């Protein structure tokens, strides 16, 4: 990957885009697959894993706890793959979570199963992101954790080599990852887990379904509220997990800027290998961007999205698909009518305060965005060039690039932050526009 100027001049589209795009593996699937493979009773493979900062941190954290994760080619000799060899989990170990929600939430339960002390720390922002649900639940299930009373990072898990498990209550209204974290390790708890969510709201349900689907595919017995009719209760039976040979789906949330490019420029983009059935929230983009003025066709080759060049505003509850908000806000700022994005108050505690950041940066380009209690109101106005700040948030960077397609002179500060989940973004973007990186 070449070094990029900072700020990075976002290319404008001089013509409708027409491109085939292959996006790397899903962050959410890769990091769940790594955890489940490390907890399994036998080795497994991840094929076409995401290689990015967040997945490297997850792999490194699991290695620190004793798991073997080898880079290589898949069992059929083709393509990149990771071989995961589970081993006894042990400290002392140090885990750097960076600013990866999946690492900071999914690994403390794994550490509670290890014997020895496991220290967790990360980027300054990781100290501000909610973790209290995981810490409180693990304590209630028998773990010893020293967080100096902060309810957040940094902290040390004093792993006892096993965890009783059993019943626990968690308020996961600030992050669905609290629930995913506890479910993923639960087959290894002595009594399994009965988890009750006590909050009024619960974001990102597709990500919880992803957790349940992947647990089941690894042989775990899981009961969801849909199965039992008991709202907000998940149960996981104790039992061994299978090692899998898993092909990771492309990251549909990272397909978003490319689909947005087709929508905005009146062009056409085909994203290869779009899964026919998936729990990824990015699958909702087909319908959301259709409502905003485009159309799509799903074929065995992938998803082809076509725009007309006219973008309509949208009034939509994004609570299930919160991570799509920055990209939708960028498109909405270029629409022919206002938009209201609702149900995403928890985005204030993501990589950055995304509601404040989007408001500030779009308005700095001449836009008219206001924050509401749980989202954004966006009134499109003619935009002008300027520096688009990204606050170490990969989705702010891609949002700035999307606006830059239609607005001359947009410069994205720290485009390298896209390495969190999409390290090749600047080169992929240049290829989309037929330019050299
Ligand atoms: O479990 C996951 O892989 C994710 C869950 C969501 O987190 P929140 O529920 O905290 O929004 C999502 O925003 C994040 O990008 C990935
Ligand atoms: C919220 C996100 O990430 P994280 O996994 O760090 O929570 C995201 O990728 O939009």
From TrEMBL:
It is found in: Cytoplasm. GO terms for cellular component: cytoplasm. Its main location: cytoplasm. Residues 13-427 form the Enolpyruvate transferase domain. PROSITE patterns: EPSP_SYNTHASE_1, EPSP_SYNTHASE_2. Keywords: Amino-acid biosynthesis, Aromatic amino acid biosynthesis, Cytoplasm, Transferase. InterPro entries: Enolpyruvate_Tfrase_dom, Enolpyruvate_Tfrase_sf, EPSP_synthase, EPSP_synthase_CS, RNA3'P_cycl/enolpyr_Trfase_a/b. The active site is at residue 323. It catalyses: 3-phosphoshikimate + phosphoenolpyruvate = 5-O-(1-carboxyvinyl)-3-phosphoshikimate + phosphate. The keyword Amino-acid biosynthesis applies. Transmembrane segments: none annotated. GO terms for molecular function: 3-phosphoshikimate 1-carboxyvinyltransferase activity. 3-phosphoshikimate binds at residues 27-28, 32, 175-177, 204, 323, 350. One of its GO terms (biological process) is aromatic amino acid family biosynthetic process. Its EC number is 2.5.1.19. Pathway: Metabolic intermediate biosynthesis; chorismate biosynthesis; chorismate from D-erythrose 4-phosphate and phosphoenolpyruvate: step 6/7. SUPFAM superfamilies: EPT/RTPC-like. Phosphoenolpyruvate binds at residues 27, 101, 129, 177, 354, 395, 420. Monomer. Catalyzes the transfer of the enolpyruvyl moiety of phosphoenolpyruvate (PEP) to the 5-hydroxyl of shikimate-3-phosphate (S3P) to produce enolpyruvyl shikimate-3-phosphate and inorganic phosphate. PANTHER family: AROM/DEHYDROQUINATE SYNTHASE, PENTAFUNCTIONAL AROM POLYPEPTIDE. Belongs to the EPSP synthase family. This is 3-phosphoshikimate 1-carboxyvinyltransferase. It comes from Streptomyces smaragdinus. The lineage of its organism: Bacteria, Bacillati, Actinomycetota, Actinomycetes, Kitasatosporales.
């Amino acid at each position: 990957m070449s070094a990029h100027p900072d700020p990075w001049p976002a290319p404008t589209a001089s013509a409708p885009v027409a491109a085939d795009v292959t996006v790397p593996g899903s962050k959410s699937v890769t990091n769940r697959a790594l955890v489940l493979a490390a907890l399994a009773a036998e080795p497994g493979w991840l094929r076409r894993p995401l290689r990015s900062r967040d997945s490297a941190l997850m792999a490194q954290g699991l290695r620190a706890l004793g798991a073997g994760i080898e880079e290589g080619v898949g069992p059929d000799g083709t393509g990149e793959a990771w071989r995961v060899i589970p081993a006894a989990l042990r400290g002392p170990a140090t885990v750097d979570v960076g600013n990866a929600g999946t690492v900071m939430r999914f690994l403390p339960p794994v550490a509670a199963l290890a014997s020895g002390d496991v220290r967790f720390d990360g980027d300054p922002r990781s100290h501000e992101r909610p973790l209290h649900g995981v810490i409180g639940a693990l304590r209630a299930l028998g773990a010893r954790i020293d967080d100096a009373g902060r309810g957040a990072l940094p902290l040390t898990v004093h792993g006892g080599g096993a965890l009783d498990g059993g019943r626990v209550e968690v308020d996961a209204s600030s992050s669905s990852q609290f629930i995913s974290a506890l479910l993923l390790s639960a087959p290894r708890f002595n009594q399994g887990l009965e988890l009750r969510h006590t909050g009024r709201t619960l974001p990102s349900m597709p990500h919880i379904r992803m957790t349940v689907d992947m647990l089941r595919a690894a042989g775990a017995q899981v009961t969801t509220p849909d199965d039992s009719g008991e709202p907000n209760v998940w149960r996981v039976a104790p039992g061994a997990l299978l090692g899998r040979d898993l092909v990771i789906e492309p990251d549909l949330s990272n397909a978003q800027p490319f689909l947005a490019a087709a929508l905005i420029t009146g062009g056409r983009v085909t994203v290869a290998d779009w899964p026919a059935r998936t729990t990824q929230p990015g699958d909702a983009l087909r319908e959301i961007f259709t409502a905003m003025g485009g159309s799509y066709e799903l074929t065995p080759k992938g998803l082809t999205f076509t725009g007309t060049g006219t973008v309509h505003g949208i009034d939509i509850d994004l609570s299930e698909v919160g991570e799509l908000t920055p990209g939708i806000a960028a498109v909405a700022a270029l629409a022919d009518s206002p938009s209201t994005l609702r149900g995403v108050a928890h985005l204030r505690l993501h990589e950055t305060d995304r509601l404040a950041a989007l408001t500030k940066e779009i308005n700095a380009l001449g836009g008219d965005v206001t924050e509401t209690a749980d989202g954004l109101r966006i009134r499109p106005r003619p935009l002008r060039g300027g520096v688009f700040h990204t606050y170490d948030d990969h989705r702010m960077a891609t949002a700035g690039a999307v606006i830059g397609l239609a607005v001359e002179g947009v410069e994205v500060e720290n485009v390298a932050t896209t390495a969190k989940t999409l390290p090749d973004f600047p080169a992929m973007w240049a290829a989309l526009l037929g330019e050299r990186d």
